[in-house]
Amino acid sequence: MKIIQNVILTAGTALNRASSLPSSILHPPASVSFANIGEGSYEDGKKTYLADADTSARYLLYKIDSDVDHVAIAGAGDDPVGPSDDQAAAGTAISINVLGARKGTVRVITDGTIANGDYVKAAASGQVTKASTTDLSFGRANLGTDTTRGAGDVITIIPVMPAKYVF
């Protein structure tokens, strides 16, 4: 009988303690609301934009164009968002490897002036060229021994945030 009385007393104490808790813990709401914001973090360093014009090749550099959701092929001296592994028709989605956010190496198309270890900058028609100290640079060439470096060839770079680096 004593054991049953102790159990009843213990249960009563627990109920008294529970009654001092906020009602939201004892009686959770029937539904839960979440905020789903489309902007923000891109874990893998890729972001989808809309192409302002048809693209002619893979691995070209892109820049922000008509608004923050649209990109166009970068030209000489432009500040690029990054290269894409895809092609796209005007008005369709294209995934961009965001420079400074993408991990690992990315592929780009060279104009034929780059050697291993060179800093790179935007050239005409979405290609990359060798950068000098006063240029806006966004990566270093990481060429394998079997990599061709002629104009129009695909090479790999180690991307960084576009900035004027001293080298």
Description:
The protein is α+β, with helices and mostly antiparallel strands. The protein has one domain (46-163): Virus Head Decoration Protein, Chain: A. 13% of the residues lie in helices and 28% in strands. It has 2 helices and 10 strands; from the N terminus they run ααββββββββββ. It has helices at residues 2-19, 23-26, and strands at residues 46-51, 61-64, 70-73, 82-83, 93-97, 106-109, 119-122, 128-130, 137-141, 154-163. The strands form 2 sheets. The protein has a 5-stranded mixed beta sheet, with no helix packed on it. A hairpin with a 5-residue loop joins β2 (61-64) and β3. The longest helix has 18 residues, at 2-19. The model is unreliable at 4-12 (pLDDT under 50).
- Rounded to the nearest angstrom, the radius of gyration is 28 Å
Which fold does the CATH topology refer to? Virus Head Decoration Protein, Chain: A
Low-confidence stretches: 4-12
Indicate the CATH architecture: Beta Barrel
Class by helix and strand content?
Answer: alpha+beta
Brief descriptors of the model:
single chain, 167 residues, alpha+beta, Virus Head Decoration Protein, Chain: A, five-stranded mixed β-sheet, five-stranded antiparallel β-sheet, 2 helices, globular
